[in-house]
Amino acid sequence: MDLRAILMGLAFAFMWSSAFTSARIIVVDAPPLSALAMRFLLSGLISVIIARALGQSWHLSRKQWIAVVIFGICQNGLYLGLNFVAMQTVEASLAAIIASTMPLLVALAGWLIFRERVGLLGILGLFAGIAGVGLIMGTRISLGVDVMGLLYCGIGVLALTFATLAVRTVAAGENVLMAVGLQMLVGFVAVAIIGFPTEDLTVTWSWQLVAAFIYTTLVPGILATVVWFHLVGRIGAVRASTFHFLNPFLGVAVAAVLLGESLGLMDIIGVAVIAGGILAVQLSKQTV
Q1: Do the beta carbons of residue 170 and residue 64 sit within 8 Å?
Q2: CB 90: neighbour CB atoms within 10 A?
Q3: Other C-beta atoms within 10 Å of 286: how many?
Q4: CA-CA distance, 285 to 288, in Å (whole number)?
Q5: Mean pLDDT across 45-69
Q6: What's the predicted TM-score (pTM) here?
């Protein structure tokens, strides 16, 4: 793995992890689904316009269109939609921890459902990751975390896991940015038809809200996805996925610095165990 790939991986992990903090800032002062819908609309239009200017085509193959729709609904609509709603009552750090278990869930489904071969290191990593999640969840529930918000986060990461498994063999080819933009527009439709008619559209404007919205639209919304696709193209999906082990650490660190969210000893131990489990699973994939 060369230096450029390492820097791309670190950048992706930071951008992905920081999205929970910016989302938390947004949902405090704006209706979650409607705000997310507007983010998808802007991210999608910007991506499509830039992609067209670069000569990319929206004439995708049938498999690519299926991937766009699945990701648009499951990743953008369900995963992000449920997380935005949940973070009205759930801290950004906890939402980031739950979402970061996606690589573990993908590996677990591959092992149990698709009978994929998993080495001893990977099996130990899976059990360690599950133990870490259980440790954090047990602590948070005993402290009175909103169980419904926790459930929304859990369903969201399951939707993201399904999308990842469903389209993991489909490549965007030369139309990476176009595919990203179209996924965002599908997500806009999926979220808008629920958010706009049902939510109170009152917004409490502040510079923090505007900054968080611009950041989440451009950085996690567009740049992180494009970096991820290029990283996968450079070093492959298995090696690129190794960087996911940084997500629990970075997610809680950004939330602690920018939002002042506190972490207990059990949270810190749980995050370390989950990160170690993710790393073990990804390293196991490289040797099987």
Answers
A1: yes
A2: 25
A3: 14
A4: 5
A5: 89
A6: 0.90
Q: Does position 65 have pLDDT exceeding 60, yes or no?
A: yes
Contacts of 54 (CB under 8 A, 6+ apart): 177
* Radius of gyration, CA atoms only, the chain: 18
Contacts of 33 (CB under 8 A, 6+ apart): 81, 84, 85, 191, 192, 194, 195, 196, 198, 199
Query: HEC states along 78-101?
Result: HHHHHHHHHCCCCCHHHHHHHHCC
At 81, the amino acid letter reads: G
Q: What is the DSSP string of the chain?
A: --HHHHHHHHHHHHHHHHHHHHHHHHHHHS-HHHHHHHHHHHHHHHHHHHHHHTT--S---HHHHHHHHHIIIIIIIIIIHHHHHHTTTS-HHHHHHHHTTHHHHHHHHHHHTS-----HHHHHHHHHHHHHHHHHHHHHHHTT--HHHHHHHHHHHHHHHHHHHHTTT---TT-HHHHHHHHHHHHHHHHHHHHHHHS-------HHHHHHHHHHHHIIIIIHHHHHHHHHHHH-HHHHGGGGGGHHHHHHHHHHHHH-----HHHHHHHHHHHHHHHHHHHHHHH-
Say how far apart CA 106 and CA 187 lie, in whole Å: 22
Q: What does the buried/exposed string (b/e) look like for 63-83 if buried means 16 or more CB atoms within 10 Å of the residue's CB?
A: ebeebbebbbbbbbbbbbbbb
Look at 258 and 241; give whichever has higher pLDDT. Answer: 258
Q: How far apart are CA 216 and CA 25, in angstroms?
A: 10
Average pLDDT, the chain: 88
* 243/14 Cα distance (integer angstroms): 10
Give ∠ CA 89-93-99 in degrees, rounded to 5: 95
